[in-house]
UniProtKB/TrEMBL annotation:
Residues 11-93 form the Archaeal Type IV pilin N-terminal domain. The chain crosses the membrane at residues 12-40. It comes from Natronocalculus amylovorans. The lineage of its organism: Archaea, Methanobacteriati, Methanobacteriota, Stenosarchaea group, Halobacteria. NCBIfam families: arch_flag_Nterm. This is Type IV pilin N-terminal domain-containing protein. It comes from the Archaea.
Amino acid sequence: MKLKNLFTNDRAVSPVIGVILMVAITVILAAVIGTFVIGLGDDIGSTTPSASVDASPGDGLDDFEADETLVTFTHRSGDSISADNLDVVGSFNTSNIDVEKDISQGTFNAGRTLDANATEASDELEAGDTVSLIFDDGDRSTTLKTYEFTESDVSS
């Protein structure tokens, strides 16, 4: 065998590269098809809404009564959310206060507000009590914003 022919003969390179490319394509296709068969691809496009929400304390918390606005949530930007998919939940340390949402329009979108009103309040608010705005459509749930009352919010 001539040494010169060894360096100039490159006929075997093309089949090797072809086999490597075919194996790589097969692995990639198997991975993509496998994710959809297992169900990992089903959740594409079903994410919770992305919205920027601010929260501020309601007026008159120093002389707190039932049917008073505890927290006002303001939608700053992001996805529009149906009011049917929103809930307001209070977490109170020692107080017995129920909260409900009050929104005049059916959609909570940029520029709109949602009030969290107290119902059947039998106690005063305390620092550390919270009110949360929650998105829940039955399949997905997330807390959009939580407001925690400070000492200055609840002191007379």
